[in-house]
Amino acid sequence: MTPAIRVVVVDDHQIVRDGLVALLGALDGIEVVGTAADGREAVHVVDETAPDLVVMDIQMPQLDGIEATRFLTGRNPALRVVMLTMNEDDDTILAAIRAGACGYLLKGAGAEEVQAAIRSAAAGGMVFGASLAARVAAFFAGAVATPSTDREEEAFPDLTDRERDILHRIAAGRTNDEIAGELYVSNKTVRNAVSAIYAKLHATGRADAIVKAREAGYGLA
Q1: Which of 34, 60, 84, 187 is 20 to 30 A off residue 23, Cα-Cα?
Q2: pTM confidence score
């Protein structure tokens, strides 16, 4: 039997918090193990309950959701965090991704969308609400003028030539399997290189690495 997904719910509005607890608690395979009313409390609750995933609001007192996410995923990169918020501006979405969030939903999302997002995020996926997906995809896939090699090397001087080649493909949206096929190397070789790239870029995950790489000119047409 597959273990239940252990979830902590973080929101400063009790009505929203209670509603999410009721929604998630009624679903098979999901167990709400704790709640918090702000980012600072979330840190303590996560320490006490060791969840698989956190559903996190952004605008909260004491410590906002983005800073709480950055702190939590910095200590535990395996922790999955899905933002659930009213804020849909591009800068906030990118800030959440850079902080280590693996998903971003708006509070108008329906119960089925929230449920599907949590299951997908817990399984290792990146999830975005239906109204945000196109904008996020456009950012990751959009093309601009090709930058110079000098700019690329200046941005990440510690990368090897092979890591630089792989980063170009990551930034262009390739999966590890696709990269392995294109470079005629094993999946393990690619995985090891990707881990090294994350460390050298100080990236919280693939989405954060893509953001940083594209800002430096990688993966662009």
Answers
A1: 60
A2: 0.68
Q: Same structural domain for residues 85 and 132?
A: yes
pLDDT score at 174: 83
Strand partners, 83: 56, 104
Residue-range definition of the domain harbouring residue 75: 5-140
| Residues, the chain | 221
Dihedral sign computed on CA atoms, order 20, 21, 23, 28: positive
CB 92 within 8 A of CB 65: no
Distance between CA atoms of residues 124 and 201, nearest Å:
20
Q: What is the reported pLDDT for 221?
A: 52
Residue bearing tokens 């509070």: 107
Are β-strands 80-85 and 103-106 bridged in parallel, bridged antiparallel, or unpaired?
A: parallel
The pLDDT assigned to 153 comes to 54
Spans in the chain with pLDDT lower than 70: 130-131, 133-153, 220-221
The per-residue pLDDT for 140 is 59
How many domains is the chain partitioned into structurally?
Answer: 2
Do 168 and 134 share a structural domain?
no
Tell whether 146 is covered by a domain.
Answer: no
Phi, psi of 178 (to 5 degrees): -65, -40
Q: What is the pLDDT of residue 35?
A: 97
3-state SS, residue 102: coil
Residue 43 sits at the vertex; the CA angle it makes with 42 and 44, to the nearest 5 degrees, is 90
